[in-house]
Each structure stands twice: as structure tokens, then as C-alpha cells.
Amino acid sequence: MANPAFQLPIIDLSSSDRISTAQSIRQACIEYGFFYLINHGVEEELFQRVFEESRKFFRLPYEEKMKMIRKNYRGYTPLYAEKLDTSLSSKGDSKESFYIGPLEDIATVGKLNQWPPAEQLPLWRSTMEDYYQRVLNAGKALLSLVALALNLDEDFFEKVGALDKPNGLFRLICYPGELGNGDQQIYGASAHSDYGTITLLAAEDVSGLQVCREKSEQPQVWEDVHHIRGAFIVNIGDLMERWTNCLFRSTMHRVVPTGQERYSAAFFFDPNPDCMVECLKSCCSESCPPRYPPIRSGDYIEERFRLTYI
Ligand SMILES: O=C(O)CCC(=O)C(=O)O
Ligand SMILES: [Fe+2]
């Protein structure tokens, strides 16, 4: 049973008291691995434009969308093509998505982005590029506070190379309303934790997102994450969990079908692929040794993606 009183902490990115904000982030990441982020610099009006353009794309005929089929993690992913919970035997998750990677044209990866033709959706690319850049800025500001929350220098993530050509992967998602197949095991997004550092999620006010704070507890307790207008829902990913030796939780979450169509936009703020992620000194000791060996960020994320696609 979902607990109606469940409420995630709220973090104000614009607060001038950085030390106390960092403290609140630390507590939120230890207890929940999830929090709301407000006053983050991305206007609500831009959220709305992103969802408007996203809706136009997903409503295009199937053949048109398939012309932009995902290549090298950029472009369109059709219904049931991804399964986030790799232990499920059912077909894939009931969602369509569209991935946009780094924008800089100096990076070879940037060149792989696909865009709907301007004649078809004239405002699409500029809207998504604008959003991408702004979320990247919010994510960088947030990461400096996360560093403070871990008693590190604010520019720690820059110094370890995580933000060299930062690897933001932006995914527009459309969950269909009616499934019409009565299959109990079909989720919009099946249970998973995110792969990277932090995720900044924007969603329309349609329920469905749930978190499970104690993944090993049985039966699992799933709690509904409510919508707060204009706020990002931020969560810690697995690479951050590895960095912090599980001090910060990469919490399991999912999207359950509610019969209502749902649009969301998830921005996975991941380290540069060459960044080595290894247990922070402040998060291990003789009695609490590192639980994971160091790993190259790109290798870790690549492998997780490989397992996700059917
Ligand atoms: O759409 C949502 O609310 C969550 C999406 C999600 O968890 C993901 O894509 O990793
Ligand atoms: Fe997720």
C-alpha cells in the first residue's frame, strides 16, 4: 500500500546558505536518495514547451518516428524496446522515448544527435537545446553542493574530470494511457536504479512514479512520489553510490501504469566517460573498506545500457 503522507525533502538551489543546503542534501541522499529541487533556474514555462514539443513528436506516425530510430544512444526508442528491470520475464517497458546527448559540435558524440525535420517540428530542436543547456547548468550547480555535502572541495567533480565535456543524456519519455492487454507485469518503467551520478527529472502532473527505499526488504514497500509544480525530482545514481561507498543511496524506482498518458523528461547527468569512479577517501575506513573496485564511468554505463535493450 502506498503511503499518502510520504514526502521527499525539498532543496532550494538558490539559497545563499550553501553550508546548510549541503547539509540538507547530505541528509536527503543518505535517507532517500531522492529529493525535490526548487529555484533551479529552469522556468516552468520552458518545462511546458518541452512537453508540448515532446507530445508533437510522439504523436507523429510510427514510420516517421522510426526514421529517427536510436543509434549510439541517440534518437527514438519504440514501445517495449527497453526493459529496466532485467530480471523480469515479460516483454519490455510500456514507454516510448527519445534520447538527446551532448550538444557541443566539437565532440564526436554531439554529432550523433538526431533531430526531427524542421519542416515537421520547427521549434523542436531549439527548445530541446535550450532545455539541455539550462539543466546542465542546474546540474553543475547542484554537483558543487553535492561535493560540499561530502566534505569535499566544491570543484571536486571538476577536478576528477567528471565534468570535462559533461555527459548529459536527456531522455524524453511518453507512457501510453491505455495498454489494453491486462498484463500485470507491464510497467511504464520497471524497477531500476539509475546508472550515473544524478538524474534531474521533470514530469507532468500525472501520478505513476514510485520509490522503494529498502530494496532488500520483503514485501517491498513502494511509495508514490507526488508532483510539485516547477520542481525537479532529483535522484542519486549508481556511480554516485559507488563513489560514496553506499553512503548516498541509488534508490530503486519505477513507473506504474495508471491508465493516463504521462510525459516526463529525465536528464541523466553522468560523468565524462573517461572519469574513473573510485571510493572517496572520506567514505571508507579500515572497518568500512571500499565495496566496489574503481571503474571507468563509460565502461560502467555502457554495460548497464547493453543489458537494458531487448
Ligand atoms: O518517467 C519517470 O517519471 C521516471 C523515469 C525513469 O526513472 C528513468 O527513465 O530512469
Ligand atoms: Fe530512473
From TrEMBL:
Keyword Iron: yes
Keywords, in A-Z order: Iron, Metal-binding, Oxidoreductase
InterPro entries: DIOX_N, IPNS-like_FE2OG_OXY, IPNS-like_sf, Oxoglu/Fe-dep_dioxygenase_dom
Domain Fe2OG dioxygenase as annotated: residue spans: 165-271
One Gene Ontology MF term: metal ion binding
Gene Ontology terms: biological process: coumarin biosynthetic process; response to molecule of fungal origin
Keyword Iron listed: yes
PROSITE patterns tied to this protein: FE2OG_OXY (PS51471)
Entry's family note: Belongs to the iron/ascorbate-dependent oxidoreductase family.
Annotated protein name in UniProt: Fe2OG dioxygenase domain-containing protein
Native species: Cinchona calisaya
